[in-house]
Specification:
The chain is an alpha/beta fold. It has 21 helices and 14 strands. It has a domain of about 325 residues: ABC transporter type 1, transmembrane domain (ABC transporter transmembrane region fold, Up-down Bundle). It is about 60% helix and about 10% strand. Strand 4 and strand 5 form a beta hairpin. It is elongated and about 120 Å long. Bound molecules: adenosine-5'-triphosphate (ATP). The site of adenosine-5'-triphosphate has 10 residues, from helix 13. It holds the Pfam family ABC_tran.
Length: about 675
Amino acid sequence: MTTQLPVASGRRTVAELRTLLRPQRGRMAAALVLLVGGTVAGLVTPPLLGRIVDLASNGGGTGEIVLTGAGLVLGALGEAALAACGAALLAQGAESMLATLRERFVDSALRLPLEQVEKAGAGDLTSRVTNDVAAIAEAARSALPRFSRAVLTIVLTLGGMAALDWRFLIAALIAVPVQARTVRWYARRAGPLYSSQRVAVAAQQHHLLSTIEGASTIRAFRIADPHAARVGSKSQRAVDLLLAGVALQTRFYARLHVAEFAGLAAVLGTGFFLVRGDAVSIGTATAAALYFHGLFSPINVALALVDDAQVAASGLNRLVGVAELGQDSAVSPAVPGSSPASSSPSPAPAATSMPVTSPATSAEPSPSSPSAPTSQPVTSAAPSPSSPPAPTSQPVTSAALSPSSPPAPTSQPVTSAAPSPPAEPAPPPVMVSGSHAVLVRGLSFSYRSDRKVLSDIDLTVAPGERVAIVGSTGAGKTTLAKVIAGVHQPTTGTVSVPAGDVALVTQEVHVFAGPLAEDLRLARPAATDDEVRAALAAVEALAWVDQLPDGSATEVGAGGHTLTAAQAQQLAFARLVLADPPVAILDEATAEAGSAGARLLERAAAAALAGRAAVIVAHRLTQAASADRIVVLDAGRIVEVGDHRELTSRPGPYATLWEAWSDQRPDRD
Ligand SMILES: Nc1ncnc2c1ncn2[C@@H]1O[C@H](COP(=O)(O)OP(=O)(O)OP(=O)(O)O)[C@@H](O)[C@H]1O
């Protein structure tokens, strides 16, 4: 089930617009002055035409008529020039505001908790950056200048009518109640309709995208028909709502025409009686009728643009919704305990002395472990609520390594990760005996409330230690890796990665479009050419990279040189080398390739992991055999811990897995 990303309220959006408007104030004020000037220049036309009527009916001189005609031409030219400049300035200002909002949206979207994006589906974000931005851009470019001019024309024309004779203004205002009712009637229906249109289009795009992305799976399982039917029903819903919008607009215009008829009849009738009573000349009555007729177009434009405004406003609310959400989540890592990799939905224990004497199944480092933590006791104080926010580390390492990497956690040495509100007293310091790279305490995790996927996990990984997680399919290996990496938040318990960044490398490696070296620099933008080459050499990729048409400058990714899955995986390892995080999580990173390729990738992984703590989800048990420690998971619980020699020397779950795997292995390496 998908959960749409949030939509901001109208009030929040207006507040956001006000902030965006601040730097554009000068430009917008100049635009307003120009537009008012243009409108006033246009409003001289009806009185001048009325004057020509009077001159003609009273037998005035040709010279005077020509002079009035010249005034008409000047008025038209002035109107055109001033209005064009004003509209251009207004559009520029609006575009600049939109550009800023778009940048903030992208920035926020990249910081969103992955879980939230996954729940909302890719279509939601995509439709916000495509359809919504297009609707707002269109409104900013064309609707806003037209709307501003229309409103100015209406206001100033009504003033012009009053100047001719106040009774013309009263007659013209007869149309207003009908128009006001029409607008209210329309706005009540249009808002919800456009919102549901956007939701329907987002759902349609989401299903379309996921169907295209999963095309090979759909074909393999022969489930094309139900998928096509699902896309069809989503499309039908979007079409129905779009047609409902067209029907609504038609009824809207029909009502407006009634208002126009009533208003014009009233103005002409008033003119007739005023001329008969010698209160005004025929020319003045003509000017009043022309003024009122001149209102048709701007009133229709302004009211019709209510339509565009509704569409743009609903798009704007959706953009601001994400922009604000991203700000919230960007801020949250600074709050003690709320960073992805150091989170705790439940309050941390008051004080814990570690290492805790662990039961046989607790995955503490064994004393014989080659990289056991130092025995020097380290007191690490959990940040108190009043302490300054922990500095957030660059999100570059994790984000660049895998599309499913989480935002980087805080780099503060947080061992206790209670999300205590500021009002609560500071949690007492947690005593940690020995340093650690990853500390998992009492962790449980559920995707759905009715089923625990992980239960009572305690795991400590020492700096530089390599821990392999093994277990049968569905045991919870990937889930544990993702929780440690911060992709998922623990349901209960704590995960802390005190040393700073953690990088997740999965087998779904994304190669970003662009030169290969730039792809690697996503992990470390400041990396020199030599560092990039050294990283490639470390993972044994330099030889084939040098053979590419333009070496490391070769365009790769979508539309560029196609890389094999193994090459893409090597690039992911090279990014890991460049990012140089103290902790790396590998999830089946070498499971893709065939046997020879797998050995190459295993060497690349080993090189990339050198010197850092690693949690490796091991499907090939050779990965487990070479690890410092092996953690065996079964149905979400740790059932066995030890190194390969230890675990194969006695009967147990790992020995059984090893035996079964050794029997199947064709190469027995
Ligand atoms: N996104 C999800 N939503 C709901 N349940 C899930 C989700 N991902 C995994 N699960 C369930 O959680 C359990 C553990 O899955 P997980 O992928 O962590 O196991 P695994 O040991 O990595 O398995 P495998 O070796 O097949 O990858 C399984 O029962 C799986 O069906």
